[in-house]
Amino acid sequence: FVLSVPNFDSLQSKAFGGAWFHLDAPRHLLHFTQATLDACLERAGLVRERDWPFQPEYGISGWVQSGLNKVLSHHNYLYEVVKDRGALAGTTLLENVGNSVASLALGAPLGLLSVPIEAVAARANRAAALTVCARPRD
Question: What pLDDT sits at residue 72?
């Protein structure tokens, strides 16, 4: 069984608090630390067999969008532009232009800075996501 969930004990979570991209309410109703995930796996009769601590797609996107969430008027703006889930339907043209310009100007630098930060966070078991392979207990 392979799964990946946001790491509530991540450096990103602590740095951004309520602006953390991976909170993603209402899709993510529960959040896990390594300890709570291990407890859930154990209750399900599974044991963690392997970890993938460095997941750039979660780490980099999390740092970029969380950083943008601190300055933009609409949380998860860049994500919503890409996913087009209808969440931007009520925004004005001026808001869209401002958020787009800020996303373009800040997105690339935040992305570049995020790679070494997320690599260090992963080495310290504080990466943005917990990605594990679990198997049935023997």
Answer: 92
pTM above 0.85, yes or no: yes
Q: Give me the residue label for tokens 């602006």.
A: 19
Q: What is the number of other CB atoms lying within 10 angstroms of the CB of residue 117?
A: 16
Q: Angle formed by the axes of helices 93-123 and 56-71, to 10°?
A: 130
Q: Identity (one letter) of the amino acid at 116?
A: P
Q: In what order do the strands lie in the sheet with 129-136?
A: 2-6, 129-136, 46-51
Q: What is the DSSP string of 52-120?
A: ----HHHHHHHHHHHHHHHHSSSTTHHHHHHH--STTTT--HHHHHHHHHHHHHHHHHHHHHHHHHHHH
Give the whole-angstrom CA distance, residue 15 versus residue 37: 21
- pLDDT category at 16 given cuts 50, 70, 90 is very high
Give the separation between CA 22 and CA 126, rounded to whole angstroms: 14
Which pLDDT band, with edges at 50, 70 and 90, does 66 fall under?
A: very high
Is residue 8 within 8 Å of residue 33, measured between CB atoms? Answer: yes
